[in-house]
Amino acid sequence: MNCSPIMSSDDKKETETSNECDEGFLPDANPTLESPRFSIAMKMNRHDKDKDTLLPPSPPKFVSMNQLAEAAKAFYNMSLAHEITVDSEFRLEKYEPQEKSLEYCIKETMHRAFWDILRSSLDCDPPDYEPALRLLEEVKQSLQSLVLPNQTTLKTLIENLLDMDIAKSQLEETGYLSLEIYKNEVINLMKQFCAPIRDQEVEDLRKIDDPIDAFKNVFILLDKMHMDLANFTIKQMRPYIRQQAVTYERTKFATFLEAQQSK
Questions:
Q1: pTM: predicted TM-score of the whole model, two decimal places
Q2: Residue 115 in domain
Q3: Range of the domain at 197
Q4: Which portions of this protein are annotated as coiled-coil regions (predicted)?
Q5: Residue range 196-243, pLDDT digits in tens
Q6: Which one, out of 6, 137, 216, 222, has a CA that is 20 to 30 A from the CA of 79?
C-alpha cells in the first residue's frame, strides 16, 4: 500500500516556491560577474587591499619651548633688521612699564627694597658691607659692558679701580669701606667714555652728597649710556645691514615658518 500523501496542485506550487527560496540562500557553486554575491565579495576584497596599501598617518611633531623661543627671537631680530634698514631715524628706546600697572609696582617695590636694605646694612653697628660690595660689583660689570673690544686701556682702568679682591682685603684689615671714594672713582670712569650729550649729567652726580642716592642715579645714567651705545652701533652698522638685509630676512623667515609648521 502506498502511504505517500497525496499533494494537491496548490501544495506542489508552495513546495517548488520554498525550494527556490532555499536555493537562494545557498552559496553559488560558480559565482559569475553577474552574481550580486560576487560583486559584494569583490568590493570587500578591494576595501581590504586599500586598507593594506594606505600609509599610516604621520606621528605628531612636538616642538620644545626652546625651539619656539628661538623662532620668536629670530622673528624679532628679522623685524628689527627690517626697521633699521628702511628707517634711517630708527632708534632704540628704553622700555618703561605703564605707571601704576602691576609690572610698574613690582619693579618700584623691588628697587626700593634693594636700596633700603643697602642703607639699613650700612647703618648697622657694626656696618654690614656685603650689600655694598655686591653694589660695586654690579657697577663694575655695567661699566665693563660699555667698553668696546679695542679699548683695552679702559678695561684695565676699570679692573684696577674696581678691584673687588683689593676692596675685600681692605675691608678685612680696616673694617671700613668708603662708598664716597668709590662714587668719585665711578664718576671719573663714566666721564671718560660717555657720549658728549651725557657730560652734564655725569657732572651732576658729583653734586649728590649722599653716596647711596648718588649710586641710584649712577645706575639710571648707566642705563642711558647703554642705550646710547646700542644706538651708536646701529648707526655704524646700518650700511652693512642694508647690504645683507634681503638674505638675512629670507633665512630668518624660513626658520620661523619651519618652527610654526612643526607645531
A1: 0.66
A2: yes
A3: 102-239
A4: none
A5: 999 999 999 999 999 999 999 999 999 999 999 999 998 988 888 888
A6: 222
Say if residues 189 and 161 touch (Cβ distance below 8 Å). yes
Give the number of domains in the chain. 1
Assigned domain for 15 exists: no
Rounded to an integer, what distance in angstroms lies between the CA atom of residue 49 and that of residue 51? 5
Find the range with the poorest average confidence among 16-30, 70-84, 107-121. Answer: 16-30
Block residue for cell numbers 554575491: 37
In a domain, 70, yes or no: no
